[in-house]
Amino acid sequence: MTKTASLCALAGAVLFNVAPVDAAPATHSKDPPAVKVALRRVTESQYRHTIADVFGPGIKVEARFEPERREDGLLALGSAELSLTSAGFEQYFALASSIADQALSEKQRQAIVGCTPADPTQADAACAREFITKYGELLFRRPLKQAELEPRLESAALGATQAKDFYAGLELALTSLLVAPDFLFRIESAEPDPANPKQQRLDAFTKAARLSFLLWDSSPDAELLAAARTGAIHSEQTLRAQIARMIASPKFEDGTRAFFADMLQLDGFGNLVKDPTIYPKFNQAIAESAREQMLLRTVDLLVHKQGDYRDLFTANETFINRPLASVYNVAYPSKAPWAPYTFAADSERSGILTDIGFLSLHAHPGTSSPTRRGIKLLEIFMCQATPQPPANVDFSKVQDSTQGTVRGRLLDHMENEGCSGCHKRTDPLGLALEHFDGLGQLRTTENGMPIDVSADLKEGRIEGARGVGEYLRNDPRVPACLVRNVYSYGVGRKAFGRDRPYLAAQTKAFVAGGYRFPALVAQIASSPEFFSVAAPKAQAAAPVAQATVTQLQPSGE
């Protein structure tokens, strides 16, 4: 039997002989019974960050992940609707094998394993137990149960005996951890609340994981797991101390980047295309740079400077690299990969809405799109959804980019019955951004005609991109939307009517605190509502979790 076939057979046997996924991860026999209340597939960024945190940044994660799903504006909500296809599991299995092979290579094993076998050509139960126990807890985000540990010890022993290599046995055990549902899915559990036995509370390890994925986009570290293991995380003092520690960590930047990459819908850059005859400067390097620029601007303002969130829409300070400089038509004298850049005070470039990332992402391959930009502006920053257009709408006039300006074409288009209501709501803000073409380059004319960038809103008239930025900066729906998104992103569900008083109170505190993002995350993460459990959901989630295990059977096994 080849090494690959042996690995597949043994790790598969381990995976499907572990305890059912809906069994409670009790740490001692007197623990109250737990019930599963939520199940979410880990996102690609959560997977990558976890592997880097657990095994070190030198481990390469080279794979194409299964598509994610956006719900109510966030991928974090769509993850609750995702399972794994057989092809997807095979990809995860191959990736797990690669990671285990790298982690236990001769170069890495001394730093990672933590113990030395008595004979590296033979099985060593004590060292294997130490390794599997440690990394099982880090990957599963809770201690392994005995029924999960024992089969992996047997696998490690069998693999070591067959290959005459202790580390080959560990590789089998580690691979089985990396393809287990408890790693690939965030399985949240609740237990009776000692202070009110008729109510449920998230168990300590679920609480730690929810906190860690919000703040770091990764699994809990050893210190946070220790606070969960002792139950100290249920103490308000310990919880606040852990939140302060985690926000002070450099990994908070990873968490912030992950949140805004989701909220700003930056996954769209993976499918971004532009007509090369119209936009010859566009290429993959531009797309990747545009995405990174939006994140650098956001993280610098909100994390490094701890600035006012509203300045995101008006600040002239950003970062550029050499590829972006060509699109912005500015000099790039720096030798560094990225450099700070401040646009002139009278420039039309101000705020994230004038980054070529936002402008190019929400446009057509060959033209700009005031409607798309307006829709996304309302959706992303104000949490205002726009209904789909009627199926029988004639778009021929508005899509004819050879005739006049887009403003004129949209006015003609709004003569269609059923279109005017939505377009009057979405188009004005997008029309004010029309000095930027479909790639985000500045222009003042279209088809030889001057472009009018004024817009009439209920609140009054605005002019150009700076007017749009000021409008968003002063609109109370913008901070309220951010609060809603942070909360929904963290708890993994959309906000409901019952959440309105809580969200209103959080928004009021956010405003009173000067619109500081770290303070907002801290106040939400420390609130009891962030860890609340709805009892009816607790009764329905367990069979869903168990069903997931059957979907993970490898083909041909």
% residues in beta strands? 5-15%
Oligomeric state of the chains? Answer: single chain
Question: How would you describe the shape?
Answer: globular
Mean pLDDT over the residues: 88
Q: What kind of sheet is the major sheet? A: 3 strands, antiparallel
Report helical residue fraction.
40-55%
Number of helices: 25
Taken together, the total number of domains comes to 3
Q: Return residue spans where pLDDT drops below 50 for at least 5 consecutive residues.
A: 14-29, 536-557
Cα-based radius of gyration, to the nearest Å: 26 Å
Major sheet: order of its strands? 1-2-3
**Total DSSP E strands:** 9
Rounded to the nearest angstrom, the distance between the terminal CA atoms is 14 Å
Decide which structural class fits the backbone: mainly alpha
How would you describe this structure to a colleague?
- The longest helix is centred in the middle third of the chain and has 21 residues, at 284-304.
- This protein is mostly helical.
- The protein is built from 25 helices and nine strands.
- It has helices at residues 3-15, 44-55, 75-78, 86-103, 109-113, 125-140, 146-163, 166-178, 181-184, 204-216, 222-229, 236-248, 251-263, 284-304, 322-328, 356-361, 370-382, 396-399, 406-413, 420-431, 464-474, 477-491, 500-512, 517-525, 535-551; strands at residues 35-41, 185-193, 196-202, 317-320, 339-342, 445-446, 449-450, 454-457, 460-463.
- The strands form four sheets. Strands 1-2-3 form a three-stranded antiparallel sheet.
- Helix 17 crosses helix 20.
- The protein is globular, with a radius of gyration of 26 Å.
